[in-house]
Amino acid sequence: MGTTQTSTSDLIDAALGHLDRLYVFPEVAVATSAAIRELERTGFFAGLDEAELCARLTAELQSRTNDKHLRVRPRRTSENTGRSREDATAALIARFRDDNWGIAKVERLDGNIGLIDLRMIADASLAGPAIAAAMELVSRTDALVFDLRACLGGSPNGVQSWISHLVPDDETQLSSVEERESASARQYWTLADVAGPRYLDGEVFVLTSGTTFSGAEHFSYDLQAIGRATIIGGTTGGGAHPTRYIPISDTIEITVPFARAVNPHTGTNWEGVGVVPDIAVDPAGALQAAVDEARRRIGERSAAVV
Question: Fewer CB within 10 Å, N- or C-terminus of the chain?
Answer without folding.
Answer: C
